[in-house]
Amino acid sequence: MQLPYYLPDWNTISKADNEPNFQKVLLGDMSAKDFLDGIAEQLNAAQAEWDEQMG
Questions:
Q1: Region class of 28: left (phi > 0), else alpha (psi between -120 and 50), else beta
Q2: 3 φψ region: left (φ > 0), alpha (ψ -120 to 50), beta (else)
Q3: Residue 32's pLDDT is what?
Q4: How many distinct helices (H) and strands (E) make up the chain?
């Protein structure tokens, strides 16, 4: 899998938004599915914005 480093929101999505949720998964306070679904939503939105801007 190639990570989408080109997305302007990549650092925010991968670090600021989801590191706390990853800790919740490790502690059992959040399911892995919910965690991954959240990341998928954020990445899909960021990709759609990128595609719109790039034409």
A1: left
A2: beta
A3: 97
A4: 3, 0
